Amino acid sequence: MADDATKVVLIWRGEALLAEGTPARMELVAPGDVPSDSLLIYLGFTVDSVRTIPQGTHIVAAVLTDESGPDVCSDMARWVSARTMAHALDDLDSGIVIEALAMANWHAAHAFSPLTGSPARAEQAGWTRVDQSTGKDLFPRTDAAVIALVTDDKDRIVLGSNALWESRRYSLLAGFVEPGESLEAAVVREVFEESGLVVTNPVYMGSQPWPFPASLMVGFRAEIEQESLAGIRPDGTEIVDLRWFTREELLASLGDVLLPGRPS
Q1: Residues 130, 164: contact at Cβ < 8 Å?
Q2: Which CA distances in Å does 40 have to 64, 109, 198, 210?
Q3: Rounded to 10 degrees, what is the CA torsion of 179, 181, 187, 188?
């Protein structure tokens, strides 16, 4: 923070500060504008010049205390959730704010050591916390989850409605990877648990950070064994309804069926 050219993204209560005007951009402030009681996390430096930010500029996240957020910016409309705004930001801003939020969430959950219950102090530019009773380093973690596009022999996809959502919202089937489990095995298990369908040939498609609070979503395609189609049923706990859609049917249902937001 001794370098005045450093840019700082501000995080307060799980939200980031949006700059005034359009297009949507995160407010990147100077080190002198950061409250002294903030938790600082070094995010890295720019490899190329981007917008008005020169190559080699250091980027830092400052996690503000509950009290200092309004002092920095009292316009509450400029404090925005990355979950609702990340899709509107460019690659630089979305990458910065997602990393900053993921790290802020980890620090918030690890003020005390899970090993001893002792206070844990942030060190190594915010990338470790140290158990004050044992000196043991604690490191950030990411929880892997799988999400699957499941198709049948008619090229239909199955979507599920979660018990926690409004009744018209549907999504692909998804769930966390269990200890000792491969990503592919997690796809097979989660789909069966939530729908009763047996799938084969899970194929990796891509991944997406999902810092709500600390996940990595890993996307797959998979095909059902047609013999299992008769056994389709929602598990009744997480998933309360299942529906098949062709591309045309899903498009025609968009006024009735709610899909996940654009950040997904």
Answers
A1: no
A2: 9, 16, 47, 21
A3: -120
Residue type (1 letter), 46: T
Q: Is position 96 within any domain?
A: yes
Q: Are residues 43 and 127 in the same domain?
A: no
Tokens of 27: 């407010």
Q: Structure tokens of 162?
A: 């979660």
Q: What is the pLDDT of residues 140-163, one digit of tens each?
A: 999 999 999 999 999 999 999 999
Indicate if 46 and 101 belong to the same structural domain: yes
Give Rg (Cα) of the chain. 22
Q: What is the pLDDT of residue 264?
A: 67
- Which residues pair with residue 149 across a beta bridge? 221
Distance CA 130, CA 214 (A): 20
Domain span at residue 134?
Answer: 115-140
Query: Could you tell me if 29 and 52 lie in one domain?
Result: yes
Do 247 and 150 share a structural domain? yes
Residues whose CB falls within 8 Å of the CB of residue 67, separated by 6 or more in sequence, listed in order: none
Torsion sign across C-alpha atoms 177, 180, 186, 192: negative
Q: What is the percent of the chain where pLDDT is above 70?
A: 98
**Cβ count near 125 (within 10 Å):** 11
